[in-house]
Amino acid sequence: MAERYTLRNRRSPVLRERDAERRELRSRFAIDAIEAAPAAPATPPRPFGDLSRATIEELVKLAGDKLGSQVDSPRQKRRSGTRHLLERLEGFEGRTWQERWLASGLDAGERPVSDLDPDKYRGYNLTHGLKALLCLRVITPSLTAFRGNKFNQYPYAFQEAQGDPLLDKFFEEARRARASERHQYRALADVCCALTTQGIAIADLSPEALLFYANECRRLNLVVSARSDSNRFAGLLAWDILHGMGHFPPGTPPTLRSSIYKGQKSPEEMVDFQGVRDPEVRQLIIDYLVRRQGDTDYPTREGLARQLAGEFWGKIEKLAPGQRDLSIPQEVYDQWREEVRVRKDGKPRADGGATILLSVRSFYMDLQSWALEEPQRWARWAAPCPIPPADLRGFGKRRRRINERMADRVRVRQPLLPTLVAHVEERYSGLKELLEAARAAPLGEGFSHAGRSYTRMGSRQDQRHHDDPQFPSVRVRDEQTGKVRSLADEEEAAFWEFAYVEVLRHTGVRAEELVELAHTSVRQYQRPNGEVIALLVIAPSKTDRERVIPMSAELFHVIAMIVMRQTQHGPVPLVPRYDAHDRQFTAPMPYLFQRQIGGVRRVTSASTVLNNLRKRCEAISETDPQFRGLHFTPHDFRRLFATDVVNNGLPIHIGAALLGHLSLQTTQGYVAVFTEDVIRHVQDFLARRRAMRPEEEYRPATEEEWTEFEEHFDKRKVELGSCGRPYGTDCPHEHACLRCAQLHVNPKMLPRLDELEADLEERRKRAASEGWLGEIEGVDRTLQCLRDKRADALRLTRITRQVNLGLPTFPTSR
């Protein structure tokens, strides 16, 4: 069974208040803007009638007789603890037990009720007595008082006492939730805690009431298993379950987090955040942002507000407090120009403030242009741009310096990429094998793997989660180090790190495009001859253009592994994704890069991918000095992909289409080894060659030519696999396929490679006996090529078997 107690919080109110203030300062959640409040039912729930003024004997009898089947404490302990606690409360002023509870000071939650008695066992009985009184609805505690006491199996005792069919339905839905048993229990505990502390039935648990509970838990640092400085919330899975069972009103957000994120700022909020004091200039910048909404996206407008209101006018107001228009004096501009060269931390800007200068200049140019179109609105703000032409020179030079730094970054990382790929692949394979070996070992028994000794943990926690069909716990102790490892979690993390690297290096997608891949992104195209080509559809992102990437065998292999992992317990779940750039939640979709985090499923963020890549590079640096002080980013893989495809003969305009670039110059900047002179000469050569070719060749292909083009791919099929030679070319090696780099061996033909190797070994023995030294050299070269191709084919089949991707399915609405 899962853990059966609530969090025991013993921190002082001063420390809790200090932690709450720290979290508020850097929170990305709109806590103050939420209309959340505790519920106030017209009729308080009273499963056993009004017990607010019942006698001690009546309450002791109810605690002993009505809470037996689901409570782990013996009847005598409940009766004794209830009597002892009520006798103590009876000495305080008040007409009801609730008033006496408040007068006793126990509702502050500074200490649990078990501390009232110095004897440990009688203190435990007091806790059992308090739990009985809460279930009977005699006392309504504060959140801190409830969480300050340790209650075993409180949700089940509370459910039994209420006798509420709607609460029973919630418990049943929680048991069917796609989450571990531990998190299912936390969802039950969250709802029962909210109902107990707010004095309501589940029918009165509105979204506002559950939001209030989640906010209070976060504010008071009462979220189970959360760090004191984290932004975690309680009730995440409980919200999902209640929303799924139709408990909340129509239009309620499907997740708790989608209810509390701040979302997009309005132009007024963007400008006010920068602290502009002049009301007229403030309104001008707001109007400017509103006018630019049609041709800019949200991140661009947010950047404009930061540059115009913060970096430009905010600094101008500090340098010249009396400035009221945009006609900036030369001396003020000179001071401002020096300030924008450095960042707030005192470090110089990489571009010398060029980005800010361009934004400010565009601001002035736009106002001058709009003043001619709408003089009544913009004419008064038209002013000469204070930025002289000299400050605008050198942008091309700085752009070249940036390209040079990026090219050097790629040249440094290109030879290190195989090391990173091998590391993540070997780590995942090793952990997968260790996990399988640990699952086969009985609880509490030892086993060996890869020369190391382990012991399968057999504690009560491991026994409870051992039979969990979806989220089994597999913990082992390494006998060499004594460290206890959770292999299921380690294998999960290793797989996703492997998947990040493989998909990024085979597609060159951006980080945000990677996490946006969904099951619906996997498509297929069937050629007229019946051959099926797998495609990966990349959703529009930076350039707002959808593109399609033909999947190689290795990429298809990784995507199949991801789909197989996500469909182990049914179809790929539909999960909303938070777009950190647009600050909005997307509609629920079957995203491929989603994980179970705590009690809910979330889509991986781009920052998580970056952090995981950084951690892998740091781990490699412990044994490989080349990785010290170096790490890979998702965009490094994009530049490496561009360099690889162009240098291997792919036309640059095809590479631009695969990368989603609107301009060939952008793709040229991504290709590290192509110098400017080489690009210019190649383009001049292509232009001359096109000019010399007859114009009739630039016509649509005829049906015969198109048939010949398709038949070319059929002719590339050979005994051992397929040939990757370009269209219109003959075999340059006279079909010596084993030595050809264009041969892609089909893993099904591995037995045939073994036969060829045996034949070559016999030929080498004959050549050695006859003294044919030239023949020996040729056979050795062929053997080396054969073994290299076998190793490549084995790598595709070593991690897992091939699976059928199928088509994405959507669950029917209930």
Give me a quick take on this structure.
This protein is an alpha+beta fold and 814 residues long.
Shape: globular
Main β-sheet, in a few words?
4 strands, antiparallel
How many beta-strand runs? 14
What percent of residues are in strands? 5-15%
Widest sheet: strand order?
Answer: 1-2-3-4
Distance between the first and last residues' Cα: 30 Å
Are there runs of 5+ residues with pLDDT below 50, and where? 1-34
Number of helical runs? Answer: 33
Please give the radius of gyration in angstroms.
Answer: 34 Å
Helix fraction by DSSP (H/I, runs of at least 4)? 40-55%
Which structural class should the secondary elements be placed in? alpha+beta
| Mean pLDDT across all amino acids | 83
Description of the structure:
With 814 residues, this protein is an alpha+beta fold. The protein is 52% helix and 6% strand. The strands form 5 sheets. A 4-stranded antiparallel β-sheet has the order 1-2-3-4. Strands 5-6-7 form a 3-stranded antiparallel β-sheet. A hairpin with a 2-residue loop joins strand 12 and strand 13. 31% of the residues are buried.
